[in-house]
Amino acid sequence: MHPMDDIDLRLLDALSQDPKATVVGLSQRLALSRNTVQARLTRLENRGAFLPFERRVNPAALGYPLTSFVHIHVQQRLLGPIVEALAAIPEVVEAHGLTGSADILARVVASGAEDLFRVNGTILGIDGVERADTSLAMAELIPHRMRPLLATGETAPATG
Q: Is the pTM of this model over 0.85?
C-alpha cells in the first residue's frame, strides 16, 4: 500500500469535518481540481480508507440507548463458530479478538437492562463460550475520531 501524501491527508481531514461535502465543494475548499479530488477519492476508497456508512448510525436513535462491553472467554478451538454465532446476534455491533485474559471484546447495544440480560444469555448460550464479563458504558468520553491522527500530517511507517 502506498503511503498517503499531504493531499490525501488534507482530503480526509476535510471529509472528517464535513462528511457530506461534494467533490466540487472539496475541490473549492482545498484549491484542487475536481478531477484531482475525484481521482483521489476513488483511490482512497479502493485502498480501504473509508469505513462503511453504517458506522455513523447512532444505536440510540434505533431504540438501543444502552451500550456495554462484553469480555468473552472462549474455547479457542471453537473460535470460528463462536464468531459466526456472535455475528448472528443483531445487538452485537462490533467484536475484536484480544490478547490477555479475555478472547473477544464485543460492543453490545440494548434497549434496557432486561434486554441486555437477554443478549448476555444468548452469548453465554453459544457452544464454546465459557464466561462473559459485562461492563456498562456510562458515557462516551472520547468518541471515535481520526482528526488528531490526520493533524499529525503523517502516516504510520510501513511494517514488513
A: no
In whole angstroms, give the CA distance from residue 41 to residue 37. Answer: 6
* Nearest by Cα to 73 from 137, 134, 138: 134
Residue pLDDT tens, the chain, 160 long:
567 899 999 999 999 889 899 999 999 999 999 999 999 999 999 998 888 877 778 999 999 999 999 999 999 999 999 999 999 999 999 999 999 999 999 999 999 999 999 999 999 999 999 999 999 999 999 988 888 988 887 777 766 5
CA distance 113 to 31: 51
> Nearest to residue 115, comparing CAs of 136, 99, 84, 97?
136
CA contacts within 13 A on the Cβ side of 87: 7
Q: How far apart are CA 27 and CA 153, in angstroms?
A: 19
C-alpha cell recorded at residue 114: 432486561
Identify which of 5, 11, 3 has the alpha carbon closest to the alpha carbon of residue 153: 5
Distance (Å, whole) CA 47 – CA 126: 35
Report the distance separating Cα 38 and Cα 36, nearest Å.
Answer: 5
